[in-house]
Design goal:
With 76 residues, this protein is mainly α. It has one domain. Helices cover 70% and strands 0% of the residues. The relative contact order is 0.06.
Length: 76
């Protein structure tokens, strides 16, 4: 018996969004699943970047870093 390498996720979408997904998939010769996977990868990238920026801003605030000179001062 073969084991699936993917899992199925059922989601609900407004009809207009579903229609747009179908249209883009047709235009790009891709599946709806491929489009949704790509959208999630893009979301994850943006989310990780936001988290990293938040960490950087909190660290800069905690260390009172306000300029490149402050970074150089702390580094050296």
């Amino acid at each position: 018996m073969a084991v699936r390498s993917t899992k199925i996720l059922n989601i609900s979408l407004p009809p207009e969004m579903y229609d747009e997904i179908e249209q883009v998939a047709r235009e790009e010769s891709r599946t709806k699943s491929e489009l949704i996977r790509e959208a999630f990868r893009q979301y994850q990238f943006a989310r990780q970047w936001r988290l990293l920026r938040g960490w950087g801003e909190a660290t800069a605030s905690r260390l009172d870093i306000q300029s490149d000179e402050d970074v150089e001062r702390l580094a050296g």
